[in-house]
Amino acid sequence: MTCFKANIGHKIFFENAQAIIPSDTAAAPKECAGAVGAFVDRPLNDDMFGEDTFEKAECKMLSVAIDTAIKNAGLKRSQIDVLFSGDLLNQIISASFAARDFDIPFLGLYSACSTMSEAMLLGAAMVNAGYANRAVAATGSHFASAERQYRYPLEQGTTRPPQSQWTVTGAGGCVIASAGKGVRITCGTMGRVVDFGVTDVNNMGAAMAPACADTLLSHFRDTGTSPEDYDLILSGDLGALGSRILKDLTWEKGYDISANHVDCGEIIYKVIEDEFQGGSGAGCSAVVFNSYILSKLRSGQFRKVLFAATGALLSTVSSGQGESIPCISHAVVLEA
Amino acid sequence: MTCFKANIGHKIFFENAQAIIPSDTAAAPKECAGAVGAFVDRPLNDDMFGEDTFEKAECKMLSVAIDTAIKNAGLKRSQIDVLFSGDLLNQIISASFAARDFDIPFLGLYSACSTMSEAMLLGAAMVNAGYANRAVAATGSHFASAERQYRYPLEQGTTRPPQSQWTVTGAGGCVIASAGKGVRITCGTMGRVVDFGVTDVNNMGAAMAPACADTLLSHFRDTGTSPEDYDLILSGDLGALGSRILKDLTWEKGYDISANHVDCGEIIYKVIEDEFQGGSGAGCSAVVFNSYILSKLRSGQFRKVLFAATGALLSTVSSGQGESIPCISHAVVLEA
Question: Exposed site from A108, A155, B216, B290, fewest CB < 10 Å?
């Protein structure tokens, strides 16, 4: 076993053959209507999932995604050494209450919509270092619980501005193991908090794009790679507008990602209707990555993917006190 | 370098000599009036710290603790590879906005009042594995921002029940390095979510004690140690009542910790006045550990300390929807 040790910049190389063996995703009907829907393991009939509150439905989706990912790996819960999870709700109650159902050590994370890649990065680090044989990384979100918490009551029927996105109702998780066949996590790049001064809480794409650009540029520089080295550069939930900004920002620094960049938020919905710029939320990249992208990696259609989920670290209180929106993006490299 | 690799249970041994070189704490006048106050690096004149909102004051305390810990180590910010931080506020805005001031990779955590030990565990893991040369672990809390968010507006003057605790206004952080003299982190035990069905949001000690007991018992079992092996077993913020419950629960399982157990919440305040059971909040264990306890470890008064911060993973929404309070505790072993 060799652990990479040096002045690491922002990146970590994972030199063991730890693999993502199985994954599982659950998503609501709207999320399953698009191109990604066919790859979702558990399409739901409605967004309540048999629960009486949105928050409980969100928690149940996450719990089911964790449980089924473990089962899909042919493992028992007792064989999982640690669960990395978080979500968008205050005090990450979806993750905490889901973790209550499992008799597994739990390390709670908050990184807004970049939680999926933060969890994968830390899971791969713990497994690669030999501190865990198997880790689960999982997250999710729910449109209605996010709207209630961050914006307006749904009953109010507030008009959404054209630069807004639609929080994905879905959850996804994967098992990261020290042995086994599967897609490998070979590198991780930890993001810094970047704030370009955007204050429009309905324009998350513009706020998050600079953080994503910062992480991608750090990654290319630290690893000596360029966009052409990846079959796909997958951002989390910048949406259509944010993706354009990301391409501009990286292009200005000499990296043209336009040929192989795709954004999870841009591709999850079938039609641009009231979701405008596309999907967002921790569940957006969790669902798209763990279903559609992972299946393409497994089939060999993609050989190497750079996955950089993106998160906006605001709260209603910070915005109410006049603060701008600090953002972050963590990246992991997946190889078939 | 040898990384421990096996079926790990809940524990991780850190075999490299990574050390906590420096630390820094900031705390408000009430917190500095007690026995711990003399060890606080930066006693504040008031709880606003020159800011115009409680949340900004909380963020500034945390930012100062991080910055000063780095300076105390004789380091520049650019020499820190990763910052692990989180706090109690929705979307951990104190940590996220503090991280915005630093050009350092940031991994956001949420583990309520057990964030200090979660951050130290992950920081030590990253440093021990060679993924970082130096990591910072830090957290904080503020009485007024916590009251506003979790309970009642201060202006309402709500009477506090006798089983309640007082959220500490303070922050603390430490640098964990792969080389250097100092107190060493030699082991970590990751906690599971434990919920004994307590629903009284004013009785956090009773809710958290079972989680702390679960982690301590896992730790003793997994490491083959017993309470006598530690000069001090330090829980996070159980308060007076929670500490009694913890001693009972561990005693029932054959481990008598009564001779060397101390709770941060029990010792931080000088007089039991309106804080009743003692201190709580992420800042409670952050301040007590990084000032008082660490100085005793440095001076050799303590040789080996088991530090288990404790967190209640509820939110106002979860309690409003009738849920009980899931809790967690992560433990690290410090050796002089």
Answer: A155
